Amino acid sequence: MTLDTWLIYVATVLALMSTPGPSQLLMLSNSATHGFRRALSTAAGDLTANALQMLAAGLGLAAIIAASANALSIIKWAGVAYLIWLGARMILKARPNDPGVHGDGPRASLAALWGQGFITSAANPKAVVFFAALFPQFIQADGPFWLQFFILSLTYIALDGMFLSAYGAGAHWIARRFKGGAKVWIERIGGGFMIGAAILLGLKSLTQNS
What we know:
By secondary structure, the chain is an all-alpha fold. Helix content is 77%, strand content 0%. It has helices spanning 3-16, 22-34, 36-58, 62-67, 69-93, 110-122, 127-134, 145-175, 181-209. Helix 2 (22-34) packs antiparallel against helix 6. The longest helix is centred in the C-terminal third of the chain and has 31 residues, at 145-175. It is globular.
């Protein structure tokens, strides 16, 4: 893979990531409500799912997953329902006298935050098809396939991680400047972001099925 090819790939990925999707909205929510460092577990879950989707694409499983329409629908809509439930719970539980609003209450475990990120990304299993369609555009036939595939995958994960971290750091910076009752609205806005992520996933599912 030449440097020019790699730079074009980076520009393409940056363009694809220029608008926030479900994972970015979830990162905003968890970073604002649980703190940036803990929200990094959410980013790790998202990137883990992406890595598995890339591996599936590399192993030639894209056609199999694309043919499993029923399985795709179940996974996608289960992810949508899960995010709506989490977001609604955040909105309804946010109270001025809630200890969690002041940072003294129980926090979600790192495993739970990781699971949210993983489910959000895995709820779009057609990402496997996306990677299977994207990567061949930049892989040279006369070069070692797996080395090029590894470079493309690692680059994508690094760029996605940077985007998620930027969203999370920004949300955390804003949330730290609100105290007491104002943090109730941070909690509610976070729940709204999570529901927004679910809506985006649902719209993607409807678009892909139409």
